[in-house]
Design goal:
By secondary structure, the chain is of the alpha/beta class. Among the domains are: 120 residues, 3-Layer(aba) Sandwich (Rossmann fold), CATH 3.40.50; 100 residues, GMP Synthetase, Chain A, domain 3, CATH 3.30.300. The protein is 31% helix and 27% strand. The protein has a 9-stranded mixed beta sheet with strand order 2-1-10-9-11-12-13-14-15, sandwiched between helices. Strands 16, 17, 19, 20 and 21 form a 5-stranded antiparallel beta sheet that branches. Strands 4-3-5-6 form a 4-stranded parallel beta sheet, sandwiched between helices.
């Protein structure tokens, strides 16, 4: 399989149909095909070879989508990097990925670049002039097995690059989800998530494979989203639960303006039952899909519209073709009703849905992949009818607003402050974001005058804003196990009881 071939097919079938709309700009499938060819030729002129990485540190723009298509067509690997990350976070990813070229939105790179990496501004007028003079024909570059190198934080707190092959990404994100969600060429989809993240990127792939029209929001705003639904007769919308929560008041206020909206696809975190009830009260005929997915695994389960009221707290059944096994700490297969770690398989790793492995990280790959199964690090249980229920995360991860925040990553930043002796981070329930970050901080001495705002600002300057603690509690000491590890469950319990940890 090859993403460039899917784009070519859609360009032949739907040449004059809008493929992507962003703001006031519309790009047809035919135009996208030509622009991808032109940029692919430029990449080849820059000596981008088969399998080379090309990083895109860009917000939601049509330029980012053109570049994704061009990189694939040039036989290179797309490295999507969120423009919301701090300069240090971007630099770490680039150092690991060692891209041949990096595209950004600033005239000069606002982050450190690896040696031998070229930086180009995607919004520079000279780049557009360069593109216009390039060849519009398909460069027929060699086929590359790998398509996307997507970075997701690991349990150590350092990002890891999950390799998504052409076969796995197109089969999973492009075709299997299209069948499950019922995408057709007649649909108009609204993307509310960053296309640099798994959810948004998957919808881009869906579009290229199905021929539907997709409206991309530069940045989410509830009023703008409803305007887009009304102006473009949007039939379906892709969200994380936090976006749904922010949308509901505007949907209620302008229900007559969203009559075209038939379906909603939600993933990124568990969808709270009370939120579902609010959504159905506002839009009783909306068909809701809520899925459990992961960057490394793809979409694993889905709760279909007719099941939402029957089993509202379930994450659904496995997608057809996806195998799931739950195991206990001893590696034994769990019986129904027993919680266990989720293992996923969909053919050999990298062939359909699941990643091929972690880039340049054989140890992490060996830990994640065993006998063809991918270990997700998530805990679920299954009932007798094959429905799965999310229990907890074995990985120390917080999902805030649909975005992954690993506790260790925040802790490693906190302990770099000269006044902080130790820190522990946990996720707590948050009305608006699903979960938010709570940091327990132990200062070097009672004489330190650090405040909650100081802690938050320190993190904000070194991490993406959504990773900063929303609550901070100062402690004299931490409850620990015999081996010295912090008892985070005890911290959570103490927080819920509104009791400070004992010194």
């Amino acid at each position: 399989m090859n993403l460039g071939s899917f784009l070519s097919a859609s360009a032949l079938r739907y040449a004059d149909r809008a493929a992507f709309i962003c703001g006031d700009i519309e790009l047809t499938f035919g135009e996208l095909d030509v622009r991808a060819n032109q940029i692919a030729h430029l990449l080849l002129e820059l000596d981008v070879a088969k399998g080379d990485r090309v990083a895109l540190v860009l917000p939601n723009t049509l330029a980012a989508i053109e570049l994704m298509c061009a990189v694939a067509r040039a036989g290179a690997v797309i490295v999507p990097v969120s423009s919301r990350l701090s300069a240090d976070e971007v630099a770490y990813i680039l150092k690991d990925a060692t891209p041949r070229v990096v595209f950004g939105e600033s005239p000069a790179a606002p982050f450190a670049l690896p040696s031998d990496t070229r930086y180009l501004c995607a919004t520079d007028p000279s780049f557009e002039t360069w593109r216009e003079t390039s060849k519009p024909t398909n460069p027929q570059a060699p086929h590359c097995e790998d398509l996307v190198l997507g970075y997701t934080s690991g349990t150590t707190g350092h990002p890891k690059g999950a390799i998504g092959t052409q076969s796995a990404v197109i089969t999973g994100s492009g075709l299997m989800t299209a069948i499950e969600y019922g995408f057709t060429e007649a649909d108009v989809l609204l993307i509310t998530s960053p296309i640099a993240h798994r959810v948004g990127l998957s919808r881009v792939i869906n579009t290229l494979c199905s021929g539907m029209t997709t409206v991309v929001m530069p940045r989410f705003d509830a009023t703008d989203a409803v305007d887009a639904i009304q102006n473009h007769a949007v039939t379906c919308i892709s969200v994380v639960p936090t976006i749904a929560r922010l949308l509901i008041p505007e949907l209620a206020r302008r229900s007559d303006d969203v009559k075209s909206l038939k379906r909603m696809f939600a993933t990124g975190e568990a969808f709270p039952v009370p939120l579902k009830e609010q959504l159905f009260e506002v839009l009783p005929h909306l068909q809701l899909h809520t899925s459990y997915a992961q960057t490394e695994a793809g979409v694993v389960t889905n709760l279909r519209p007719h099941e939402q009221r029957e089993r509202p707290d379930s994450i659904g059944r496995c997608l057809p073709g996806v195998d799931v096994r739950l195991i206990d700490e001893g590696g034994n297969v769990c019986e129904d009703g027993q919680p266990g770690e989720v293992l996923v398989r969909c053919g050999p790793p990298g062939t359909a849905m699941t990643m091929k492995g972690y880039f340049n990280n054989p140890q992490a790959t060996a830990e994640a992949l065993s006998e063809g199964w991918l270990r997700t690090g998530d805990i679920c249980q299954r009932d007798a009818d094959g429905y799965y229920y999310f229990v907890d995360r074995a990985k120390d991860m917080i999902v805030s607003g649909g975005l992954n925040v690993y506790a260790k990553e925040v802790e490693l930043v906190l302990v770099t402050h000269p006044d902080i002796d130790d820190a522990a981070v946990v996720g707590i329930a948050d009305e608006h974001f699903g979960e938010s970050v709570l940091a327990f901080v132990q200062l070097q001495s009672p004489a330190c005058l650090m405040t909650k705002d100081d802690v938050v600002q320190f993190c904000k300057e070194r991490l993406a804003s959504y990773k900063k603690p929303r609550q901070v509690l100062f402690v004299d000491d931490f409850p620990r196990t015999m081996s010295g590890k912090v008892k985070k469950h005890s911290l959570k319990s103490l927080h819920l009881q509104n009791i400070s940890p004992p010194s």
